[in-house]
Design brief:
It is built from three helices and no strands. The chain is mainly alpha-helical.
Length: 97
Amino acid sequence: MAAQADRSFPFSTFRLVFACCAFALLAVPFIAMQFSPELNWGPGDFLMAAILLAALWAGVKLALRLSRRPMGRILGVAACALAFLTIWAELAVGILD
């Protein structure tokens, strides 16, 4: 009988670390809203942030799978991060107007 991979833990280390970081990023404005009236996010804002973080995760995962060379992986991850930050800034303050 062929040995099977251990499937008792459903998340890979990458997924777990990324999910924890995404949760922490979403928790920062939620906690800040409790102390400052200047920060006012609605449910739609949290949903959009979660969608952006999920898209970032998918892009990074795709970049890591498609590229075999380290420089290609670095450039792919950097492109995903730059796209994420540009979209986030556009949605926050409208930098491209």
